[in-house]
Specification:
There is one protein chain. This protein is of the alpha/beta class. It folds into three domains: 2-257, Metallo-dependent phosphatases (Purple Acid Phosphatase, chain A, domain 2), CATH 3.60.21.10; 264-321, no CATH class; 335-370. The chain has helices at residues 21-38, 58-73, 88-91, 95-98, 131-138, 145-156, 271-275, 297-304, 335-347, 353-370, and strands at residues 2-6, 14-15, 18-19, 43-47, 77-81, 103-105, 116-118, 121-126, 163-169, 171-173, 194-196, 205-209, 215-216, 221-223, 240-247, 250-257, 264-269, 283-288, 309-314, 319-321. Helix 7 (271-275) links the parallel strand 17 (264-269) and strand 18. The longest helix has 18 residues, at 21-38. The relative contact order is 0.12.
Length: 371
């Protein structure tokens, strides 16, 4: 069985005010689809964070619809789960009909204990979960994610004579060493949200999503990382496709480079040197080495050399201009995208599905009132 392991698409993502939808469409249609055909991929696995926000824009939804339709037309089976950025309710819409076309979307943890068997391989799809989700679904009293995850694996009752693959979107820690973060993930503070990779040791392969830097966290567990660079800290991060060939007792991972529409670069130099650089459509963050502020520097850089300049920093002065990393990005004009970010910034937690639906309903009524 050969499958492609993807995660953290974050469709609709904006990078410091710049929409990445064009870059994401290029990745899906000019990179992923040709690879699926060329490599003879049987199954496409997407391990969560399909969208960047629980209430995605219309353009984001259309992009996903176009892509999974193209996969279905190629007779490629697609397995998807929601991540912590997704609304389970929205992602599950139409999932029963999609199954007839080979598109499997599991959003309810109760359904994750039943495998989806494809060509002799049992795929278990475990949506992003918190321990209280398991408590509510199975009448348990777990105090942390690790215990809840171990319980979920027990409920799956794996047949070890078969090939078992788990698809999950969680914070899974390696046996040894530290987890390496990409820079744009949302990480729970403390240890309640951690899961030890040993919990998933019974699986032949664990396709993980959530961490944007590709890495192994166990002999059988891998983060493939986000396909695009979604943070300045990820500028020098290598991104690649994870092609997984799994057989009983043997897993082989082949890496294929991902070619992007626009690179993400960090540039160092004096203002005069940066202005004189060859023009480029790449996304760039500039460290200006001048010893004094340059008035309207970012506007001039965008007009002359780099229209997608994300921001400036003055390392020799110790400040940042236009897009400091510690400032939340509220770059959308759509209230349905702004409110979840505002809510999370203030309260430190995401809207539940019920809250998201309530907000959308209230915003719709407010819009009708204005009209």
């Amino acid at each position: 069985m050969k499958f492609l392991h993807l995660s953290d698409l974050h469709l609709g993502k904006r990078l410091r005010g710049f929409s990445l939808l064009e870059d994401q469409r290029y990745f899906l249609f000019e990179q992923t689809l040709p690879l699926l055909k060329e490599e003879g991929i049987d199954v496409l696995v997407i391990a969560g964070d399909i969208y960047d926000v629980p209430a995605p824009s219309q353009d984001s939804v259309v992009l996903l619809d176009d892509f999974i339709t193209a996969c279905a037309n190629l007779k490629i089976r697609v397995l998807m789960i929601p991540g912590n950025h997704d609304s389970s309710l929205r992602l599950s819409y139409g999932s029963k009909i999609f199954r007839d076309r080979g598109i499997y979307i599991v959003t309810d943890i109760k359904n994750s204990v039943h495998p989806i068997e494809i060509d002799g391989v049992n795929f278990y799809l475990l949506p992003f979960m918190k321990h209280h989700d398991v408590n509510g679904a199975f009448e348990q009293e777990f105090k942390d994610y690790n215990s809840a995850a171990a319980f979920m694996v027990e409920q799956m009752q794996l047949d070890n004579s078969k090939i078992n693959v788990l698809v999950a979107h969680q914070l899974v820690l390696p046996h040894h060493g530290d987890l390496e973060f990409g820079g744009s993930e949302e990480v729970v503070v403390g240890t309640v949200g951690n899961i030890d990779s040993s919990v998933f040791s019974q699986f032949d392969y664990v396709a993980l999503g959530h961490i944007h830097k590709p890495q192994a966290v166990g002999d059988n567990a891998h983060y493939c990382g986000s396909p695009l660079r979604y943070h300045v800290d990820e500028a020098r991060q290598e991104k690649s496709f994870y092609i997984v060939d799994v057989q009983k007792g043997r897993v082989e991972i082949t890496h294929k480079p991902i070619h992007v529409l626009h690179e993400l670069r960090v540039l160092d130099g004096n203002y005069a040197d940066v202005i004189a650089m060859p023009p480029s459509e790449d996304y760039v963050f500039v460290n200006l080495l001048d010893n004094a502020y340059v008035e309207n520097a970012i506007d001039a850089i965008r007009q002359t050399a780099f229209p997608h300049c994300l921001g400036l920093a003055y390392p020799n002065i110790g400040s940042t201009e236009s897009g400091e990393e510690t400032v939340p990005e509220f770059d959308s004009e759509h209230p349905e995208e702004l409110f979840p970010k505002f809510y999370e910034m203030v309260l430190g937690q995401q809207l539940t599905d019920f809250q998201s639906e309530t907000v959308l309903e209230l915003l719709g009524k407010a819009k009708e009132g204005r009209q």
